[in-house]
Design brief:
Largest sheet: 2 strands, antiparallel
Oligomer: single chain
Distance between the termini: 60 Å
Low-confidence stretches: 1-5
Amino acid sequence: MRQVQRQSLITQVTDMLREQITSGAWPVGCRIPTEPALSELTGTGRNTVREAVQALVHAGMLERRQGSGTYVTAASDVSGTLSKHLAAAAERDVYELRQALDVTAAALAAIRRDDTDIATLKHLLRERARLNAAAEYDRAIEVDVDLHRAIVAASHNALYLEFYDSLVPIIKSAIHHHVEYHGLAETHYDREHERLVQAIIDGDPAQASQEAQLFLASVLRNIE
């Protein structure tokens, strides 16, 4: 009976942590609190917290990073499973899938973006350009993915965003591979991103989808 009770407690804590993720309190990409902090927050022991976190790692929602902490990698169990399934995808396959998602999302964003979306896009675009200019390429890749995710978020399609979040780890991996293979100077695409964001800000869905298509087609040509 004690084992059943213990397992029930682990399940309860797992559900509590999952709720923090699915509610957006811990968004994709953020580092969750440490085990001691989680023990205090949940009123349970560190062993219970550790097993609850591990359950979400197995589900693909969390990722432990040696020396850094534990990070949210997916907004749901389904997204986490999908992310793990796609982890071995070829670089070209990833960009072809992005074509289907990013082009439509850009058009929807141009129609549905609000003032908050516009402010976010402008900020990320400036930060992306600044990091590239400063040769802080690893951080620039992180912001680049944040920018494209912000475009999807501006589409205000929750299903699109959840699916895109499941792709974020493999998108980052594909970009890193692209930079390593083709060199840094050829992979900034600063002007392309400026035109894409401006089309969304201008509320021009046709132009936004065209800019997204042109950018990703250019990347695919370099791959092939």
